[in-house]
Amino acid sequence: MEWSDESCPHDPPHLTLMGSFDLRCEGKSVPISPAGQRLLSLLVLSRRTLTREYTAEKLWPDATGIRAAGCLRSALWRLPKLNRPLVIATPSTLQASQDIETDLVSTEDILYRAISWSQPSGRHSPQEMPLPDVELADQALSSDLLPEAWDEWVIVERERLHQMRLHALESLACIHRSAGHFGQALDAALRAVAGEPLRESAHRQVIETYLAEGNTGEAIRHFEELRHLLHAELGLEPSPPLCRRVESAVGAIRIRQ
């Protein structure tokens, strides 16, 4: 499909980076070359103006300077022609257009708010500070940044957002459990476990939720599964505080040694 200046007359382009790359305009997906996807992703994730030399080096690290500069010019030329430029280019610098709407801002907002709910200084609950959109919130709490991309500059940002997501899920598990919403608490905790199976703090949220709803047997079972997993993968035991928590909760029931 050939995009003209009139192809996106009203709404600004929207760029999705969580889960997969998708550039949309007027509700329709806009075709963009792989090089264009990487270029736009780098500029959006950088959140600042970059020199052409720096951009070319980041995108084509194994190419010579001349070759990388040529690849950059080609990627810029092949960007979709919409009613507004995707990239603001000067002879020496590049910057993503401020007209581009991206899911990064909403994702970070959701994660920051979820994390703040369980902080000691937090004064809000999910009811007082609801997530803006169920579908958007679910994507923020389920998706990683460009999971199929392996550029260093993507990996660093992906790990930052991944860790934020795990903390947000643990926070949601805690706040839902406190409110007696055990199903939602367990869903959030198990999502955190799925995101990082060796993360003890996520498993703790699962165990605490089982104990809070009176399912002591499930808590013991999950604790033992964690114990076997840590021993098999890392040669470690669960932390003493978690062991003591389970032992104190089950009372006379003895944890297998």
- Ranges with pLDDT <50 over ≥5 residues? none
Overall 3D shape: elongated
How do the strands line up in the largest sheet?
Answer: 3-2-1-7
> DSSP helix count?
10
Radius of gyration: 23 Å
User: Count the strands?
Assistant: 7
Defining key terms:
alpha+beta, 257 residues, single chain, 3-stranded antiparallel β-sheet, 54% helix, 8% strand, 4-stranded mixed β-sheet
Q: TL;DR of this structure?
A:
It is built from 10 helices and 7 strands.
Give your account of this protein's structure.
- The strands form 2 sheets. The protein has a 4-stranded mixed β-sheet.
- It contains 10 helices and 7 strands.
- The protein is of the alpha+beta class.
Give the SSE layout:
Elements: E1 14-16, E2 22-25, E3 28-29, H1 34-46, E4 50-51, H2 52-59, H3 65-77, E5 87-89, E6 93-96, E7 101-102, H4 103-117, H5 134-140, H6 152-178, H7 182-195, H8 200-212, H9 216-234, H10 240-250
